[in-house]
Design a protein that fits this description.
- It is built from 15 helices and 18 strands.
- It is globular, with a radius of gyration of 21 Å.
- The strands form 2 sheets. It has a 15-stranded mixed sheet with strand order 9-10-5-11-4-1-3-2-16-17-18-15-12-14-13, with helices on both faces. It has a 3-stranded antiparallel sheet with strand order 6-7-8, with no helix packed on it.
- It is an alpha/beta fold and 420 residues long.
């Protein structure tokens, strides 16, 4: 069966988050890093293209996503999804709105929805306001995000400067009435000329209502969770087919833990790994600027890989800001990404075949350094965080790429146990 659903994600961990939730349906899911060079080959029913465009200049992000859309259309996709973070993080200029608008124009879509809710991970939307757990977005740790600090919780206010035309709302009272009520609300807004609609969701039941009401839209946008019910809806109509039997061979070999995220949850996950006695090396951007990655590589080369070493740049917001003030935000981040990427390659060459990676930018850098172009999606470790299977340096490898705030405090141990 040809590709039916094509999705574009603004970073790699977001793409694997989406892929993991869609794969719950049993429908084959393929994830590709960047826009493929050639024509579609061996395309899956669900194809996801992971870009690195969350904080790129708007024009670059639009060009990349439109190129991805063109490839997915050539693969046969008929429904499309623009995936961004469940915390809606971006800059005041974009890139969430400008990309959505450009994709709508290419597809001739007259309306789309915006729904970054992910109730399993504590992201909910009520009356247009995004909550992280019980905290409004602007009061959550996202207010101090090193790249995209979020200082407003209202999605309509955040989106309005990024798009042309008015932004509408389908609130929780409408969604709670069911599919027909939501469809009627969207039609009402469309009659008013409102093309961009924020939709409330506080539970998985809400997501099911939204997916059913919007399944025939040419383009939907949001976090991964609102797309989760779609494959089952399409499978019931015979538009996609579920995979039969086991799909993935066991990947044996040592493991390595690589963490570049500085989110509040990743700080706790690293602390838990340290408390468990993992051999660990901390990467400091200021030291990397002076001495390069040599000390980290030397340390890793001396480790017993059977002990599953941890290399991390994870730090509290105050330390992150101090490094950024000294080096510049982009420079500090790139030093860490490059160092962890080099460590991943060395670990592979020392026998590691399982890679646990935390942080969106880090995940992209590691996957690129390992030469990974395509991932097949396997079992989830936590909501939105699956194990994936790929080829690197002629070897079968397993890799998980975690968004910063996802997973339990025991995530690193959970990941290794899940694959075992």
């Amino acid at each position: 069966m040809a590709t039916y659903f094509g999705a574009i994600a603004d970073d790699l961990t977001g793409a694997t988050d989406l892929a993991g939730l869609l794969a719950r349906s049993g429908v084959p899911v393929s994830l590709r890093m960047g826009v493929p060079d050639g024509p579609p080959v061996d395309a899956a029913a669900i194809e996801i293209i992971a870009l690195k465009c969350r904080t790129e200049p708007v024009a670059d992000a639009v060009a990349e996503t439109c190129a991805a859309l063109a490839w997915l259309r050539r693969a046969g996709a008929q429904r499309f999804f623009w995936k961004y973070c469940s915390t809606f993080d971006s800059t005041p200029q974009g890139n969430i709105g400008p990309v959505a608008q450009a994709l709508m124009a290419d597809l001739g879509a007259y309306q789309t929805i915006y729904c970054p809710a992910f109730p399993e991970n504590g992201r909910s939307i009520f009356m247009g306001n995004l909550f992280v757990g019980e905290q409004p977005l602007a009061e959550s740790p996202m207010k101090d995000h090193p790249l995209t600090p979020m200082r407003d919780s209202n999605l309509m206010r955040l989106l309005a400067p990024q798009v042309t035309g008015a932004v509408g709302l389908a609130n929780r009272l409408v969604v709670a009435k069911g599919t027909a009520a939501l469809a009627a609300r969207l039609a009402e807004l469309r009659a008013q000329g409102i093309a961009h609609v924020v939709v409330d969701a506080v539970s998985n039941d809400d997501l099911s209502v939204i997916a059913e009401a919007c399944q025939d839209m040419a383009l939907m946008t949001g976090g991964s969770a609102v797309a989760m019910p779609l494959p089952a809806l399409w499978a019931a109509q015979g538009l996609v087919a579920r995979r039969e039997g086991a799909a993935f061979a066991r990947v044996d070999g040592h493991a390595v833990l690589l963490s570049g995220s500085c989110s509040a949850m990743t700080n706790r996950q690293v602390a838990a790994a340290l408390a468990a006695g993992r051999p660990a090396f901390r990467l400091d951007p200021l030291e990397l600027a002076e001495r390069g990655a040599g000390p980290a590589l030397d340390w890793l080369a001396a480790q017993d890989m059977a002990a599953t070493p941890l290399l991390y740049a994870t730090a509290e917001p105050v330390a992150v800001r101090a490094a950024q003030d000294r080096l510049g935000k982009d420079c500090a981040g790139k030093l860490v990404e490059d160092a962890l990427a080099a460590c991943a390659v060395l670990a592979r060459d020392q026998g590691a075949r399982r890679f646990v990676v935390a942080g969106g930018e880090t995940s992209g850098a590691v996957a690129k350094a390992l030469g990974i172009k395509r991932l097949d999606i396997g079992p989830e470790i936590a909501a939105g965080v699956p194990w994936c299977f790929a080829q690197s340096g002629g070897q079968d490898v397993a890799i998980t790429l975690k968004s910063g705030n996802f997973g339990a405090e025991t995530f690193f141990a959970d990941a290794l146990e899940r694959l075992a």
